[in-house]
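Course assignment 3, question 2. Fill in each field.
Student: A.L.
Task: Predict the tertiary structure for the chain below.
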Amino acid sequence: MLKPSNRTEARLLEQLDLERLPRHVAIIMDGNGRWAGRRHLPRVAGHRAGVQAARRIIESSARLGIEALTLYAFSVENWRRPHAEVDFLMRLLREYLHKELPVIHKNNIRLIVIGRGSQLPTEVRHDLDEAMKLTGANTGMKLVVALNYGGRAELVDAFNAILRSAEQSGGPLPTVDEQMISDHLYTAGLPDPDLLVRTSGEMRVSNFLLWQIAYAEIYVTETLWPDFQVASLIEALIEFQKRERRYGGLGPGRRSSKGQAAS
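Answer field:
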């Protein structure tokens, strides 16, 4: 259970219905560079501050009882950034894992990494594999970290996996339907996001979970990611609970465990 640390959090928690939380929250963590620039600091300072924001949002989401939290940490396009910045981000990731993994494991959180992991540096892959192995049996919140991730790349990989499976079976090509595609995505087995949060005020989804967010509620805040507080998260959840979710129909609907619209 999340305990408020200040009056603002306490006031907001009173407005939150803990029985109607989204099962899956996905966040595009944007604004680290601008946060640093406004303070006349190097971009790496913004990334370090962003890690602090991630820490508090992960902990708070788990305490609230959210089933899954997906964080967009590094996209396939991010390799275009200066080599020194990319190298720092990889080192920062390893540093975070070494410091926070015991806490994550103690809190029964399961770490899942999605994306083209084979293209990450060897030492990063090793640390991620060890972290996922350690937390693999945990039954609490699923912390999904998108690394070297792109929504289009995910769909390409899903279709190639379907083709490989058909080729190995020796049978005719199957008729591809939505469920088959979902079963071959990186996120197979997870509910689709109910709420997509984007910080920094940008009005785009940036190639993130393109298939999975088909019916997600989108919440955009001008707050830069390093400034995103627990109160900011609660505000997003309150806004989510005010929405009437239609799933493309004329009235409110509900989702099955597979994330599809149900009558």
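Instructor remarks: The chain is about 45% helix and 15% strand. Residues 200 and 223 are 5 Å apart (CA to CA).
Grade: pending
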